Amino acid sequence: MRIALVEPSRTVQRIVTGIIEPWGHEVRTFMDAPEALACLTADRDICALITSAELASTSGVELVSAARTLAGAQRPLYIVLMSSSDQRSKMIEALENGADDFISKPPAAEELRARLRAAERITSMQSELIALATVDSLTGLLTRRAFVAAADRMLELAPAGRHFSVLIGDLDKFKAINDTYGHEIGDLVLQKVSEELRAIDVPAGRLGGEEVALLVEGHLDDAVELAERFRQSVGSLAIRAGNRTIGVTCSIGVAEWEPGDTIDTLLRRADAALYEAKRAGRNRVVAADSFPLSDEHKRWRGVARALTRKDA
Hints:
Elements: E1 2-6, H1 10-20, E2 26-30, H2 33-42, E3 46-52, H3 60-71, E4 78-83, H4 88-96, E5 101-104, H5 109-134, H6 144-157, E6 164-171, H7 174-181, H8 183-200, E7 204-208, E8 211-217, H9 220-235, E9 239-241, E10 244-246, E11 250-256, H10 263-279, E12 285-287, H11 295-299, H12 303-308
Parallel strand pairs: 1-2, 1-3, 3-4, 4-5, 11-12
Antiparallel strand pairs: 6-8, 6-11, 7-8, 9-10
């Protein structure tokens, strides 16, 4: 593991580092909380924090609380408070503020080793659970929930002048591919298309079925240009199915964030543009607000979409 050690005494730093490093762990040492928090923010590979209860600018318990808030639910971080005091109240306070463990200072080698083994087990399980919740197992894209969470984070920055757009893409006549070649080939098609998406290196998610979405920083023109490049890359795929080669196309709707938009309204505008791309003949990119809305557009997420799914 990569471990952050926060301890104001260089002597104790050397003792603890000397105990830990022979076990194969990497230790980064800090004298106080601010520099440790800065490193935790910049380096997401740090998965364990050992901090003294007695620090210069803030208490170890306050650092524990700040580090736990920083990690949130999407990052494994095992936190150990280390104290020369054996007061039960200190241990309870540390645990209530987000610590996973409490150990005396300086720690006994075997006790510290056992606690770090527990840290490895727990952070490993947390990583697996986070991956299951955030990454679609078939495509490697974000899950719908993780994609919406990423969009929410971008939405928070939009009022400050950070422009961004949403692209929603849907593979054309995908049901026919499944019906003709089987779901195994259908899954292969989704995987190949998703490889093209991941190569773009922007947040991309699988919203469901063959429907994917991207978050793109910049104005609508930039997003439309990127969508067109993606459409062309999908159209150039040649996917083998036995002795046959399958071609695939996609339709894409694009919408730029506007003041007052929520994630729901932004996705709905992109989805209406996707419907227009389908209605206009498929295999094309359509920007939101470039066409008059009709009742069909408004119903596209409901009955109209369900009715046209077999022809999508």
